[in-house]
## 1
Amino acid sequence: MTTINETILDELVGRVIGDLGGAVSVPLVRIGDALGLYRTLKAIGPSKAHELADAAGCAPRYVREWLAAQAASGYVHHERGVFSLTPEQALVFAEPDSPVNLIGAFDTAAAMVENQPKVQSAFKTGRGVAWGDQAGCMFCAVARLFRPGYVNALVQEWLPALNGVTDKLNAGATVADVGCGHGLSTILMAQAFPSSQFTGYDFHTGSIAAATAHAQAHGLTNLHFEVGRAQDFDGRDFDLITCFDCLHDMGDPEAAAAHIRKALKPGGAWMVVEPMAGDTLEENTNPVGRLYYSASTMICVPTSLAQETGLALGAQAGERRLADVIRSGGFSHIRRAAQTPLNMILEAT
């Protein structure tokens, strides 16, 4: 007969209830973002529910219940019927350029739920779910998820951590951003280094169209975007090639590594930005690993399995496995140049 440890059971149930509270907060956070409730509350300061509703142009009864849920979650501050955002809460929910803005993570979680039927079917067949066939809002959600990290660290920390790269970029270099998605990383680099020329490549036509529109909206002339796969994109003699949070999604990252090596100039560098991970499950049994393993199950592994070879590294491949893939392409020197709680930045030459 199985003996139940009531203390362990209570701890587990409590943890699951906490998780469910976070899960059911996903639509509420997205509503608050879409309707400008967080931004409005930050702008007008401490307010009663009807005052926030009036300022945001929303129905007071809905806003009152929404605020109650946000207060219970600790996402807004409440005291005697008055609601406000602390400076810390504003950084997470109301400031899009904050390094800890997490709205994109809630959008990604919603897309993962939408993706469930396709991935669930793939569990039985072993086939993949192509990037272009995933949930309709997946591409925008992923772009928004990674944006705060890129805005606050790419030009300020990651590129300077590479050997001599910023000097080349300031003088005028040629750069390929492979797997560029909606082009946020490419645009940030092009804005920071106007003397250099940038080309963004992605195999998803819709993402390239979005990236091109973003570049035009910024009035940038030193970059363009092309549809191209990592293993055979056009273009040669690049001083720098970058891959942001995409190597592990590729079907054949080893072929991509080999092609990237051939596309670099002698002395050129490859910057690989990947999710932070240790080399073992035990090292990744933490809050960050939990998020990435879940996203990997629903997004990254299905995407890779839908492509040629389907190596399916997963988002928590770890530096050792990534280095093996990079070396297979002909790179002899690999080092971790920088890191954040969410990303590791590898330099390969």
## 2
Amino acid sequence: MTSMGKTRRTMSVGLIGAALALTLAAPARAGETPTAAAGWQLTPTGTDARFRGLAPVDRRTAWAAGSKGTVLRTTDGGRSWRNVSPPGAGDLEFRDVEAFDARRAVVLAIGEGEASRVLRTEDGGATWTESFRNTDARAFYDCMTFFDHRHGLALSDPVDGKYRILSTRDGGRSWEVLPSAGMPDALPGEAGFAASGQCLVSAGPRDVWLATGGGATARVLHSADRGLTWTATDTPIPAGDPARGVFGLAFRDRTHGIAVGGDYRKDQPSPSAGAVSTDGGRTWNPSATPPPAYRSGVAWLPHGKAAALAVGPTGTDLTTDGGRTWRTVDTGSYDTVDCTADGSCWASGEKGRIARLATKD
């Protein structure tokens, strides 16, 4: 976080557990930049790739996946990053990564037809194995999620009028397309957004949600049986255009969820860019004070029940009431954000930006 001018007050947000405390400055007066005792601390990545895929494991270990087939890994809390990109992957666009520990990770490349692929490593990125390559020209995979070390899903835009779901039961070593009988029809023009690795998220052993946009309404679909059957619910986040909809989801349990999105075009406003669910996604209510602009990533802060961060190209916003109201706490550009159970938060985005949330002692 940069430091210029004076702030009116500071706000402390406690994160119960360990010795983690987060102190963020209040928004500054017009024309000023917030000052904070703690905030995003950029780490040296040595690349200009754009990282929309991010998978922190704990305070020391994190993985990032991005453009130009780039995959990075740190095991020292971001003080240094090792380039562990798969050989020959320079033409691939990695948009999601799911990591189990410092050695095992799965990355998703997006695109039409064979551009959509899944690769897996079991040795910290020293070697990679391609475990899935899309052979259907109609499919375009956007993001993935794992319930545990073995069971995971990947999401494709609609094929024959329904979202396609890919499933693994062995940690990403092999994949199969699930039957579509339990999937509701997609709306005309509806699709997922491969913007932050958060268009498909899970909580617990069986619950999973997918985010949509581009159709007449922005929807969230929910499955309680690992992707076999789904129900769809409208959200108040505006859609009706290929650039609008829900871009990121976060559930801190199978009940409490936050959705963020808007219009990703720089010259377009994004009113009602946040929504909240307290019933597992069956209903969504608009944030009373939403993020002020398009946001693509969102994450619950660890060990708390009401604090979360949302990020996008124009800044980071904080909520301390479960997503009902948001306030901007940083103006740096990030595409995605994630936090770990042991109390660390990370964000990544354009021009090689990967940051860790530095906290006040």
## 3
Amino acid sequence: MTQCADISRVRRARENLERLGRQAPELRAFQNEPAQMPSGAVGKNGYLRLEFTARNGRSELSFMDRRVPLLAQRALYWDEAMPRMPCVFIISTTGCILQGDRTALEIEVGENAQAHVTTQSAGKIHMMNANYAAQWQNLVVEKGGYLEYMPEPMIPHRTSRFFSRTDISIAGGGSLLYAEMLLPGRKHHHQDELFGYELYSSSVQAVRRESGQPLFAEKFILRPGATDLARTGVMNGFEIFGNVILLTERDKALRVREAAGAAVGPELAYGADLLPQDCGLIFKVLGLRSEAVREAIRQFWRIARGTVTGHDLPEKFLWR
């Protein structure tokens, strides 16, 4: 693995984050600077780039560039079901997300390469009285590539503001499994924590790598202070939200949708549907307990991986 300081690439990522923050209408009320340290200052402007390449019958983490507070140490091969696939944990040296933080993540999976990327623990978005926190994620999958990007849940604390933008570029014959899970806050910590955050904005958009053709775009903006998230048509009494996107060939997406099924119950609801342009499908979960939502996502992950790669999932870690 080679490490190299690509200053121009890091600068472009930072400029993109600032541009997105200025242009997003939902962030207009949160442009004031923190009194403690300016937004995007040293230590608050993280960057991580991971490149995976297929070599000698297995995939490798061939390139990494990083800036604090984002960190990755090395690729591990702990997945016994896919022992030739590198697995990388993204680490935060601060252990949390603070006001004024800006982070950029870029993952590129080369032709016929495979990778699994996750985070060390849940993302804790701390309380804020100025500005906001933002992340930009750029995911690229080349022909025949396979990427699982499965970060741990986000936990927005009360008064927090968080903005996320994910750009995906995927080549024909490539497959990507992307997941996000949002908790309602630290509801057992304080009476104002349940849906106590000010803003959570997340958008994902994908294009075909060869042509730049748009495939789909999705954005949701949650403002608990302005909208009752528990009402019908939003969370409908549920508290935890899971969102999984599978980009793959149409025949595989159809088989996954049929196997995944759908259900609505008092504590859990889930279902999948096809995305535009025959590019894959989207799977959504609502629940009252994080364990149930995580298990629903894991079962969808098992079906998707089995359909796309022919492999099962490894055993669950006892501590995750």
